[in-house]
Amino acid sequence: MTTTAPDAAPRQGAGRAAIAARTLRTDRWWFPPAIQAAGLTLWVAYATFRAFMQDHYWIDQYHYLTPFYSPCVSNGCTPEAAEFGRFLPDWPILPYAAMTLPFLLLFRLTCYYYRKAYYRAFWMSPPACAVAEPHSSYSGETRFPLIGQNAHRYFFYAAVIISVINTWDAIHAFTTADGEFGFGLGNVILVINVLLLWTYTVSCHSCRSIMGGKLNHFSKHPVRYRLWLGISKLNGRHMLLAWVTLGTLAITDFYIWGLSADWFDDLRFVN
Question: Which end of the chain has less neighbouring CB within 10 Å, N or C?
């Protein structure tokens, strides 16, 4: 039996291999971040254009209001669309929904999935697994502006309030200008959009933490435990929901834009 003296020096490892190549991957590792960059860029360009268009956002006959203009609180808003009042100045550089759009943007920007997406797609930090990033230093999310990512929970609270407003918009759209019940394709699109927005919002990591955080014994909190389980299942689809809701937001807005511009008529089922 061989023993080692207590004061014997430990054997040093061989060290990491010196590899000059940025990566040894042979697959198309660059394709996912490229697609993400293209998708996010196109969506931001469309949303920015529509937010500052300040037209074709409201269908008075069916009470359809696009989510890009909800709530419409500018003095330039159509009175029928401004259910929460008109108190912001009507400036071309100020979106009609300026009270909510910044919070929605910050909620998505600080979302754990979107952080992963745009860190890889735009900052290449890193662009993919097992691919070295081009930056010589990394400070994490400890300095401005990335330290603001830690405020994600507070933007989640704002997103919940905005989701309530979007829900009211979808409900209100079942009442026509004549005060009667109405139901058309636009209602279907608005309801699907708001349901998916709620699903994306509650699948957020912050919501999961709120439901199950600071608990030592789930057995003593059965309701929160069941909610935490449900949110955890949704959380596994957070990436999918992040992209799907970008799509439903754009589709909903484009449909209302098209109706307002008389490109096509709403398919009506009732009234």
Answer: N
- Render pLDDT for 138-178 as a digit per residue (tens, 0 to 9): 777 888 888 888 899 999 999 999 999 999 999 999 999 99
Question: In the numeric block, which tokens belong to residue 196?
Answer: 């998916």
Q: Please answer whether residues 72 and 256 qualify as being in contact, where contact means their C-beta atoms are separated by less than 8 angstroms.
A: no
Q: pTM of the full predicted structure?
A: 0.87
Of 90, 108, 97, 134, nearest to 44 by C-alpha is: 108
| CA–CA distance, 33 with 14 (Å, rounded to integer) | 34
Is-contact 265 185, C-beta < 8 A? no
Contact 182, 271 (CB under 8 A): yes
Cα dihedral sign, 259-49-72-76: negative
Contacts of 8 (CB under 8 A, 6+ apart): none
Give the distance, in angstroms, between the CA of residue 182 and the centroid of all CA atoms in the same chain.
Answer: 30
Q: Is the peptide bond before 71 cis (omega within 30 degrees of 0)?
A: yes
- What confidence tens digit (pLDDT) does each residue in 15-43 have? 656 767 778 888 999 999 999 999 999 99
Helices of type H across the chain = 31-51, 101-109, 112-121, 152-172, 185-202, 205-212, 222-235, 238-260
Q: Residue 162's closest CA among 227, 79, 236, 70?
A: 70
State the chain's maximal CA–CA distance in angstroms: 96
Decide if 252 contacts 189 (C-beta within 8 A).
Answer: yes
127 CB-side CA count, 13 A: 19
Q: How far is CA 99 from CA 86, 113, 184, 220, in A?
A: 11, 25, 29, 40
